[in-house]
Amino acid sequence: MLKGIAPRLSALFARPRDVSAVEAQMRRDWDDRARENALYYIVTDAADSEEQFAASGDQSVRDIIKDVEPPVPSQATVLEIGCGIGRMLRPLAARFGTVHGVDVSAEMIERAKARLGDLGNVHVWLTDGSSLKPIRSGSVDLVISYLVFQHIPDAAVVETNIREAFRVLKPGGVFKFQVAGRPDTEEAASVERARAKDTWCGVNYSDAEIRQTVERAGFRVRKTFSHAPADSCIFLWVVAERRR
User: Which of 44, 50, 75, 122 can bridge 97 by disulfide, Cβ–Cβ 3.0-4.6 Å?
Assistant: First the structure.
């Protein structure tokens, strides 16, 4: 969450020259953040202790899956995009048969492996930040992502992740994810176009923009909704389905 003290940032991306440069910057910045204070940069308002951090992961999982209909079966395969050190992977593993987590940061992935080594049904993978190449096509029942896309400075990278989520989902599978939202006005759109973007304050979407992006990837949008936590960005949620 974007709360409290502003983090130390690396180079800004007002207009990224190419996706590979964005991916490389994402990797460097998140490796640095993992080394500095992984808990804080993953969830800033639940980083005072391991117990608080773990409890926040369990709460987030409950909040994310509670309105997915029909309920995801216990034997399902679930994928988290942007898993960090595994805040939500452990509670996911307690609920589902097979759990995958991917992240752009090698430092985060190594820490996740160490933290989750006792769990036989969890698999974590290092990716380039755009593709989900380690995950087989049509093999996942539910894909989730939370507090991740709001940090991506290029809409092309976000869209590639969405297209990849479509690829790995089974027909009928669900993708529930969150982006940073903004009002659907020309004034807000103008501010967004002019705003410098980096790997902490990434791209923002109007409801119409994220719906169009998701539908371009092949999904049917079930619903969108938003809320605005105190001292944070607008959290815009999307629940989308890969048609059967």
Answer: 75
* Predicted model pTM: 0.92
Q: What angle do CA 108, 102, 27 make, to 5 degrees?
A: 50
Q: Which amino acid is located at 196 in the chain?
A: A
Number of CB atoms found within 10 A of residue 205's CB: 24
Between CA 180 and CA 230, with CA 226 as vertex, the angle to 5 degrees is: 75
pLDDT tens, residue by residue, 47-74: 999 999 999 999 999 999 999 999 999 9
pLDDT tens profile 155-214: 999 999 999 999 999 999 999 999 999 999 999 999 999 999 999 999 999 999 999 999
DSSP state of 74: T
- The single-letter code of the amino acid at 220 is R
* Strands 169-181 and 140-145, bridge-based pairing: parallel
pLDDT of residue 179: 98
CA separation, residue 140 to residues 71, 113, 144, 217 (Å): 15, 21, 11, 17
Residue showing tokens 């939202």? 181
